[in-house]
Amino acid sequence: MLLDDDFAPVIAAAESDGLVQFTTSDVDDDAVGALLRVNVPWLVLGHAGVEASFGAQGTHGFVAVSAEDVLIDDEAWQAAPEQELDTITQTASGHFAGDGWQLAPHPLCRGDLRDWSWAWGRKTWGPVVLDVQVPRSADEIRKFLDAESPLPYRPVPNEPFLSAGRLEQAGRIYVREGALAFTRSHVEPSRTTMAFDAGLCHALASGALGELSWDVYEQDYGAYLATGEGCASLARYLDPAADEAAQRAHWRSVFTERVVTAPDADTPDAAAVALANALQLSGVKSVAELGHALVRTPLASLPRKLRLELPNAFHNAHGTGGLLDAALRAQPRLSWSMSFRATI
Questions:
Q1: Strand 213-218 vs strand 128-133: parallel, antiparallel, or unpaired?
Q2: What digits encode the pLDDT tens for the residues 80-137?
Q3: Which positions of the chain have pLDDT values less than 70?
Q4: Which end of the chain has the lower number of beta carbons within 10 A, N or C?
Q5: Residue 341: in which H helix or E strand, if any?
Q6: Which of 224, 180, 182, 231 is nearest to 239 (CA)?
Q7: pLDDT at res. 69
Q8: How far apart are CA 53 and CA 56, in angstroms?
Q9: Who contacts 153 (Cβ-Cβ below 8 Å, separation ≥6)?
Q10: How many helices (H) and strands (E) in the chain?
Q11: pLDDT of res. 11
């Protein structure tokens, strides 16, 4: 096809046929090129052992490859990599290839899994978090992410996270010792972000960083929405064929609030003893010993959601008395709170 000032026919042909080769008519020596239609959100161009990547937007992304720089002012061409072209073949897997180069979907992109935020359902403004705890250091987690590159996430100078865009709503990945956390806000994420998150989550569920535990929670309200233990549990969460109603019923059971009242507790240590007795934790006589007992107790043996009711006089004298701090240091995945009343 001859490409002149009207390139709409070339785009239309690529939309319908998948691949259109063209020559330009506005340069002294005709430039040979091709416009490819790619129905994936992210591509990797491999050439001479070097990989570069870029995103493709819209229902169908377009990629232009050409023998020399073809300057065309149109959105369909702006992200086009310049690549020497002779013949182009398209493989059965949807890859495009020429002499020494290959254009292929990024292996991490997944469009066949549930988005990790599905338990949230966008019922609040967010942010919502998927926190995945793994037996790896922060450096090992960063090396895992580096090995999956190129990614749409980029490091942010002097910040403990990678960002998919300039705004927090675009998606972030926080890395810390023993965990990585995916975050989203109320803004609909891009198709690219969702595809890469799915691929990363699938890699984690496949054991890329060892056995894991995971939680989905609404950060502002501190409300846990979903939880699981082990790689298989995360795989079920991402599986679109899994029984959603059964999963939600299980999480409601896990996060059913238990209320413990301690009307006679007048010191933090007395409140710690009352709470320990209610939970059948032996040998606790102080707040510090409560923390030690919680460390020794498997999370599955503790109520994930608990509210400790104390008299107003306790709060007036001691505030929270360090009880919640001790509990969360011992078991960070607990959702415990305190309330105070005039009479209990």
A1: antiparallel
A2: 444 444 455 655 555 666 666 666 677 787 888 999 999 998 888 878 999 999 999 9
A3: 1-7, 18-34, 36-104, 150, 165-170
A4: N
A5: strand 335-341
A6: 231
A7: 39
A8: 10
A9: 145, 162, 163, 164, 171, 172, 173, 196
A10: 9, 19
A11: 72
Place of tokens 């161009």: 45
DSSP H helical ranges for the chain: 8-17, 138-147, 191-205, 231-238, 244-254, 268-278, 287-296, 312-318, 323-330
What pLDDT does 73 receive? 32
Give the separation between CA 44 and CA 9, rounded to whole angstroms. Answer: 26
Tokens at residue 117, please?
């935020």
Q: Is 140 helix (H, G, I), strand (E, B) or coil?
A: helix
Q: Which two tokens stand for residue 102?
A: 């290959």
The three-class DSSP label of residue 34 is: strand
Structure tokens at 304: 């994930």
Q: Which residue has the tokens 């005709």?
A: 30
- Global pTM value: 0.77
Separation between Cα atoms, residue 116 and residue 113, nearest integer Å:
9
CB 118 within 8 A of CB 128: no
At 122, list the tokens. 């966008």
